């Protein structure tokens, strides 16, 4: 039986609260990955290898953890006895970590991120089922690429986004829809598994995370001011993702400042603050579209692109 390596990074799935009725007033990243697995009896029948890589609330996720996680995932996947990898993670930045791993590694084996909206101490915690489903997907012979498994849905790394603040079914894949559904311990495939060309880990490992290109998200809205753009440029920002209104439209007060920033070597991309849909068409100033990426995911994509420049 091939192994599944389960890597713990913290998050709500490992969180605890003083009361089983408390779903929001908890402390994340309190329980180790071994305890999480022990709480799911069916996983005792699986060949698992457990690694505690980090213990962080994912709102505080850092590039150092990403670097170490990518290295650990690549090392595990290179072993012939490993079918796939599961990463337990917080929900807040899961979509960013998923895309980072897919863009850097584009693995031929499955890498499955899973999480929970309720802490481990909740009366009806969602973490145990999500973890069981994630291990099943990681061991599935045809699975590949980086995916996220939550609430019985398998989401591709390029499409997954957190779409609700509180519900247990907080994640969706936008217009693309899920890759597959988990149904009674089996998968119903709906579309192709994630694939693509890997950026490669060597470039990531060669650069101190403190020196990774600085990219920020700037939101366009009523009464927007150019001061924010100029302040970021003066501080040394290398790229700006504008979360524009509608189809990536940008307030006129920001456009001149963004053009100045571009002239000084700052990369500018247009995304949308809307929850669904891509940014279509060209901008008169030539600013690239982030496509269907959320602003948060576009920020990661731009950072990786600048890293390769």
TrEMBL record:
Swiss-Prot/TrEMBL keywords: Hydrolase
The Asparaginase/glutaminase C-terminal domain, residue ranges: 215-307
Active-site residue numbers: 12, 91
PROSITE patterns, per database record: ASN_GLN_ASE_1, ASN_GLN_ASE_2, ASN_GLN_ASE_3
Keyword Transmembrane: no
Family affiliation: Belongs to the asparaginase 1 family.
Record's protein name: Asparaginase
Organism of provenance: Caldimonas caldifontis
């Amino acid at each position: 039986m091939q192994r599944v390596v389960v890597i713990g990074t913290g998050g709500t799935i490992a969180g605890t609260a003083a009361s089983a009725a408390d779903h929001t007033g908890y402390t994340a990243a309190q329980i180790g990955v071994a305890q999480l697995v022990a709480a799911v009896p069916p996983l005792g029948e699986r060949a698992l290898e457990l690694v505690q890589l980090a213990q962080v609330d994912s709102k505080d996720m850092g590039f150092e953890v990403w670097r170490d996680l990518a290295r650990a995932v690549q090392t595990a996947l290179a072993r012939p006895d490993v079918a796939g990898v599961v990463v337990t993670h917080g929900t807040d930045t899961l979509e960013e970590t998923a895309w980072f791993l897919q863009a850097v590694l584009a693995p031929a084996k499955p890498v499955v991120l899973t999480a929970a909206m309720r802490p481990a101490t909740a009366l009806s915690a969602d973490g145990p089922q999500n973890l069981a489903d994630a291990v099943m997907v990681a061991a599935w012979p045809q699975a590949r690429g980086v995916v996220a498994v939550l609430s019985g849905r398998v989401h591709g790394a390029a499409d997954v986004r957190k779409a609700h603040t509180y519900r247990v079914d907080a994640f969706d894949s936008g217009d693309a829809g899920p890759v597959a559904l988990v149904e009674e311990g089996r998968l119903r495939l709906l579309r192709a598994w994630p694939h693509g060309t890997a950026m490669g880990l060597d470039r990531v490992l060669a650069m101190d995370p403190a020196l990774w290109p600085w990219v920020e998200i700037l939101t366009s809205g009523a009464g927007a001011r150019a001061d924010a753009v100029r302040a970021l440029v003066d501080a040394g920002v290398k790229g700006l993702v504008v979360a524009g209104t509608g189809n990536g439209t940008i307030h006129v007060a920001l456009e001149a400042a963004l053009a100045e920033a571009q002239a000084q070597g700052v990369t500018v991309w247009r995304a949308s603050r809307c929850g669904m849909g891509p940014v279509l068409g060209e901008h008169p100033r030539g600013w690239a579209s982030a496509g269907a990426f959320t602003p948060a995911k576009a920020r990661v994509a731009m950072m990786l692109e600048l890293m390769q420049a």
